[in-house]
Every structure is written in structure tokens, then in C-alpha cells.
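hey can u check if this looks right to u? its 131 residues, i copy pasted from the old doc so theres a chance i mangled smth
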Amino acid sequence: MIAMQLQSHIGGSHCIDDRLEKDRTGMSDAHDATPSITYDHSVGRWASDAAPFPARRLYLTSDLRAATGLPRTHMDYYLREGIIRPTARTESGYLLFDEAELETLRAVLRWREAGVGIKEIRIRLGRATDA
């Protein structure tokens, strides 16, 4: 298991500095292959079932909304539509996002402000649906 430390973030939100891995299950779907992160009480630290990746910061959904000013309903829509994808999920079900996904969300918001439609955004992100 990889140790992680919960760090306080400006404004009362939190982020997790962690090391993640490629999914061990061999599943290709990002939602199903998300590594699990839990608090290991025996050592008093956060731990993951993932192998090491370079250290990176993870944000909760509320952190992304605070950083972008996005309403909850819009964030839920982008998640449901696959525009934004979680990097990891805690054992209790909280979604975690890395810096790259935060930048993706910021790009999506810029495109939406410029009048770009969701279908075009999916194409730009390479996240087109089968429908």
C-alpha cells in the first residue's frame, strides 16, 4: 500500500497528495478501474491499493467547484456525461480529481463561455459517446 497524507488546502477544502498506479484489474473503463483510497488506522495514514506513480495532488468534487465557481448541478451533468472523469475514488465513494482534470474542466468552461456545444467539447476531449 502507498501512504498518503491528507493536507489542508486554502479555504477549508482538502486535497490528497498521493501516488497512484495503472489499474491492477486490467479493466479499461476509467470508472470501473479507479483505484481505491482508504485511511489505514494501523499506521495513521491514507493508503491506496495502487502502485506508485509520481506524486500528485488530488481534489474533491467540492474543490473543483470552488476553484471554478461551477454550480453543483453543472458539475453533476459533466460527470454524468463523461466530460469530466474522476482520477480515483475513496473507499467511501468520494470522487478525486488530479490537476489535469481540473485543467480539463477549466477548458470546458472556457469553451462553453465561447458558445461551444457539448458534442463538440466531447470531440475536442476525445471523450465521444457511442450513442
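Residues 44 and 86 are 25 Å apart (CA to CA).
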